[in-house]
Amino acid sequence: MSQRYSSVVKPSSDPPSSLSTSSLKEDDPSWEAAANDELSVRPSVHRKFLGKGQPFVDYKRVRVTAGKGGNGAITFFKSSRNPFGPPSGGNGARGGNVYIVASKDVTSLNGVLNRYAAPDGGNGQGKQMHGADGRDLEVVVPVGTLVRFTDPPVSISVGHEDPVAAEEIMEKHEGEGQEFDEDEDSERMRLINKYYKFRSGYTPQADRIEMLMERLPYESASDAAPTVGLSFDLTTHSERRLLARGGRGGPGNPHFQSSEIRGPAIAGKGQPGTTVWLELELKTIADAGLVGLPNAGKSTFLAAVSNAHPKIAPYPFTTLNPYVGTIDFPDFWTMTVADIPGLIQGAHRNVGLGHRFLRHVERNRMLVYVLDIAGQAPWDDLAVLKTELEMYKPGLTSKPTLIVANKADMGAVARDNLDKLKAMVDVPIVPVSAMERKNITRATAVMREIVEQIRKNDGDETLQ
Ligand SMILES: Nc1nc2c(ncn2[C@@H]2O[C@H](COP(=O)(O)OP(=O)(O)OP(=O)(O)O)[C@@H](O)[C@H]2O)c(=O)[nH]1
Ligand SMILES: [Mg+2]
What we know:
This protein is an alpha/beta fold. Mean pLDDT is 80; it is low at 1-52 and 175-180. It folds into 2 domains: 22-55 and 285-458, Rossmann fold (3-Layer(aba) Sandwich); 59-282, GTP1/OBG domain (Spo0b-associated Gtp-binding Protein, Chain: A). The chain contains 11 helices and 16 strands. Helix 9 links the parallel strand 14 (366-372) and strand 15. Residues 298-299, 310, 318-319, 339 line the site of magnesium ion. The site of guanosine-5'-triphosphate (GTP) has 24 residues, from helix 7.
């Protein structure tokens, strides 16, 4: 390498203002020096991974149903000595809950199913054997997923309480010698049938119905609380939230024994689990987002600095989905970098791949503009990128910034452009050759310094 660059990094007046770039100025390393101490460079890209992988999904609608509670049992402990033994029905168990968990190990909503249903709780058995609780289910989503509870699709009706079934029950009990006062009694029978079950052939008498009405399980506020419209954001690894609560199990028949009722042929029914509809939207959270025109070398840079193996090719729009890689520093400090598909002029109006991916720029801690420094006018490219980000969401460009002047290996043009760019902008600029893996550690060191500063200011690992 014959080129030498006088200054590698320019001190920044951009936020964060407290960021010290003095250490970066101290030893302006040349290409050769930088190339010799490439600690974080992976020697080879595993070819077999190139271009493979799962489709990227960043929006999904999901239906989640918690498990139904198990029914209580109606059994009696009979023996030769005691043919009318005491009631011995076990309780039904609660149905499985459904939780949503954020994980840094998944990067797309691709693995999320359309429907989830937690297992039901087990029914009670004879000999006081209670059912087994339904297993809890976890929906695993990437960190940065927004969860919104929505209305059910119009064509499906939700109701756990089925008015038609209640009608049928009413009809069944008509003509059985019991007089029903139309409205009131049908409502009572509906409730009784919702919460209790009877041994086949058993018809509860009026006084039993009275007793059962008195001890109806009360519905807690959280059971009935409407969730539609609620939303939350999963921003940290292993954050866990309850989506749907499993139904309670019904008590077994010993619970209905009293001085009057010696052999209760009654047990509690398991309650249905709640059903909710969700909208999941992924807005990738990475420490740094790579923003650049198509073909600028973003993917090559990501492959050079991180453990990721994105597809790299000499045509625009090679990268069609955001791709997150992790940079591992020798002292085990890590940061994440997102390769975002190329932007072009008019992206905010949906030109090119459009604004679909701009949402993934929103929540990165810092921006890394990757410019093709050997191109016609890299400063124009930078202006286009900044304009597109601002048009999509005002204020987006005010994040801490680094410019990676890529393709600096391309001779005199690159060197001249770099000098011109340095004179024009007031942001740290690091010339690199992502392809030849030169000056990469320099770039990652600056990125680390900026990210460390932001994390310190934020006070924790979360990001809003
Ligand atoms: N000479 C030279 N070529 C490079 C360098 N970095 C990347 N390239 C080449 O530039 C082309 C585009 O690289 P990519 O990494 O696919 O570019 P990208 O920005 O990810 O492009 P899109 O995914 O299409 O937005 C490839 O042919 C790379 O080999 C570099 O430092 N020097
Ligand atoms: Mg790419």
